[in-house]
Amino acid sequence: MSEAFVNPLARNGPSVINSARAIKSWTRKLLSLPDEAVVSVSELACHVPGCPPRETVVLVMQGTETVQVSVHQPMKDVTEDDVVQAFSAASNPD
């Protein structure tokens, strides 16, 4: 067996970790979150008709309150402006 094992579930290693860290940092800065607030970033398959195949979901958990926003693109493509727009849309629903 000369080939190395390839994990089919691996997600490009450090680039995903760096993207998640950046999104968490932008979220903390945008919302002026205290250290005890929890920010979770996940990339999920999007099953909504017309949605791109991957979406990035950001959860902010502070005390008993949880806020969730979605950016309809892979985590590696999310920009700081995308995060700002997602939270702006969540705080100003139609």
Description:
This protein is of the alpha+beta class and 94 residues long. It has a domain at 36-94. It has helices at residues 14-31, 80-91; strands at residues 38-45, 54-62, 65-71. It has a 3-stranded antiparallel β-sheet, with helices on one face. Strand 1 (38-45) and strand 2 form a beta hairpin. The protein is globular and about 35 Å long. The protein starts with 13 loop residues before the first helix and ends with a helix. Keywords: Plasmid.
Q: How many strands, what sense, and barrel or not for the largest sheet?
A: 3 strands, antiparallel
Number of strands: 3
**Overall mean pLDDT score?**
86
Oligomer: single chain
> How do the helices and strands follow one another from N- to C-terminus?
HEEEH
Radius of gyration: 15 Å
User: How many helical stretches?
Assistant: 2
How are the strands of the largest sheet arranged? 1-2-3
| CA(first)-CA(last) distance | 58 Å
Large-scale geometry = globular
- Label the structural class: alpha+beta
Which short descriptors sum up this protein?
94 residues; alpha+beta; three-stranded antiparallel β-sheet; 2 helices; 32% helix; plasmid
List the helices and strands and how they pair.
Layout: H1 14-31, E1 38-45, E2 54-62, E3 65-71, H2 80-91
Antiparallel strand pairs: 1-2, 2-3
Short description:
This protein has 94 residues and is of the alpha+beta class. It has helices at residues 14-31, 80-91; strands at residues 38-45, 54-62, 65-71. The model has no long low-confidence stretch (mean pLDDT 86).
